[in-house]
Amino acid sequence: MKIERFEENPLITPTDVMPLHEGYEVIGAFNGGVAEYNDEVILLLRVAERPISEDPSIIKAPVYNTLTKTMDIISFDINDHAYDFEDPRMIRKKDKLDSFVYLTSLSYIRIARSKDGHHFTIDDEAFLYPFNNYQTYGIEDARCTKIEDNYYINFSSVSPVGVCDSLVMTKDFKTYEDLGNIFAPENKDVLIFPEKINGNYYALHRPSLKSIGNYDIWIASSPDLQSWGNHQHLLGIREQSWENGRIGGGLVPIKTAQGWLVIYHGATPEHRYCMGAALLDLADPTIVLKRSKKPIMEPDALYEKNGFFGDVVFGCGGIVEGDKLTMYYGVADTSMAGCTLSIKEILRQLDEE
Amino acid sequence: MKIERFEENPLITPTDVMPLHEGYEVIGAFNGGVAEYNDEVILLLRVAERPISEDPSIIKAPVYNTLTKTMDIISFDINDHAYDFEDPRMIRKKDKLDSFVYLTSLSYIRIARSKDGHHFTIDDEAFLYPFNNYQTYGIEDARCTKIEDNYYINFSSVSPVGVCDSLVMTKDFKTYEDLGNIFAPENKDVLIFPEKINGNYYALHRPSLKSIGNYDIWIASSPDLQSWGNHQHLLGIREQSWENGRIGGGLVPIKTAQGWLVIYHGATPEHRYCMGAALLDLADPTIVLKRSKKPIMEPDALYEKNGFFGDVVFGCGGIVEGDKLTMYYGVADTSMAGCTLSIKEILRQLDEE
């Protein structure tokens, strides 16, 4: 697979973003969903801000307080044996390492704009900032689907009651309409298809399961984009592969003559994130026609391998012009990068296997 | 709380039910949803059948094969150190005790009928038997909501890809229409309200969360009963109480002049299951008006305390006649029992706290 990474990569790094909160530092500007609006490319950046700790033995956790509309900070002593601080993203109880109790940063969505798709300026204000109790730990990983003149933006809402997927609609990237939590917790990586298929909307989603099951991709349908049903298992993780830990939707599915092209992420249990591809039936996207055995993209550049959480390429959106797919992707849970791929070449790789 | 347990309790026990499968024994006839149909009380019994093991050192796990339409049996040596067999309901990996890999029995739904509500005869055939790949480990814990002339029955579909909640509709308790998986995994204890409220259907549901959050009750709305959205957190577990482990909807919500009466189950981490009550706003059931601090019912009778999985009362349906609520409930994951309660008294208990 020939991937042309942008020469300007990384396009946006945390140092390009001024923190919104006094006493905080921006540690991530990444995983941005993509929209074309007027003559601009818009990235719905996930900006992660962390309270600055002067004392390396103190770990701080920010929590948005919906009553005071300010941030509370919970402090932990790194020597507190009840907690585990090994994963820099979260604070976990030592006896429950597969779950977290706090995050070490709070994410929200901020817009970066570009005329040429390579050079971005970043808005001074947040676009999506925690606005209800489901978001007290933040808003993460926005994806954007344009349907007619409406831009539907879905994202993870994180709070102590769970990780939901929520939806807003905007026409101008200034104001938005809240359409509620569209997938119950625990769910992430929701990707809404860009048009109705046989009278229904469709979306990929990735539930996180407790009692039984893997981190697999499911598909659901909806009459109205707010209510979802007909949940079906679509793509599973694959043992002994680059995607044996978890998979999840990446880009909004791309309509091609051969089918819906799904570009998704796959990771190992050690959290090395690559991008893969699959093809779904045009008339019935619950049918998987093809799936790549090899990843179409792996972390390779230094900015993909090193960072807050290294060895991660995490595509959240793309722009299609003929055969050229420009993919914007988060790198190392830190920054944004861009690259171009040939859709024909991706389809050819699906054929070869 | 005055509870009149039926003199005939337990009403149905496993010995009353002939197994459908040769070489199997019925180990549970429990957790039956309830309907009134023509002049009969119908219990949608969860029947659990287990392959008979002649050798106590061999544990067997039944799996429905949707291709051959027969049961496969997986055998485990009780001395296999990779697995844990302590919970008689399931087989778990020793290093992942909060999840299971197989169940030791397969459940399906069979109808018990009664003219007087006390004496039941059990159909010879299954009513809901695994009919797709989401049910290869069985169908569990049906609940039934009558809306106009349609009986909507939802239940847990259990398979290696997860635990979904699925819906069928019947008009005659002989045939049914499959309405798909209405809640993505992992979700259980879905209770559909018996009428539209302000133009939408509502349902309680109980997601099981992995990364963060508890076993709490959520509420969702739907335009059509198949697609669900607007997910909101409704009732949480309560620390240091009879319901500090998990809670989940029990009976179809009961409309009273004061609000929607929700009778739900609550359990400790040690799996002692009681029944509790809460009251939701009539016009907006996402608003909790009251909630009982004490359970309204606790396991007390011998048949509630002893069985396949003891210390469990698990109400799945009721019949309301004026002030009298007849509740049918599973006991000890084994049998069915019945009791009557006064709705006024339940409401009074909510007022006292």
UniProtKB/TrEMBL annotation, chains A, B:
Transmembrane portions of the chain: none
Domain of life of the source: Bacteria
Matches recorded under Pfam families: Glyco_hydro_130 (PF04041)
InterPro entries cross-referenced by the UniProt entry: Glyco_hydro_beta-prop_sf (IPR023296), Mannoside_phosphorylase (IPR007184)
Keywords, ordered alphabetically: Glycosyltransferase, Transferase
GO molecular function per UniProt: glycosyltransferase activity
Keyword Transferase: yes
Gene3D superfamilies (UniProt xref): Glycosyl hydrolase domain, family 43 (2.115.10.20)
Listed PANTHER family: GLYCOSIDASE
Family classification: Belongs to the glycosyl hydrolase 130 family.
Protein name listed in UniProt: Glycosidase
Organism of this sequence: Candidatus Enterococcus testudinis
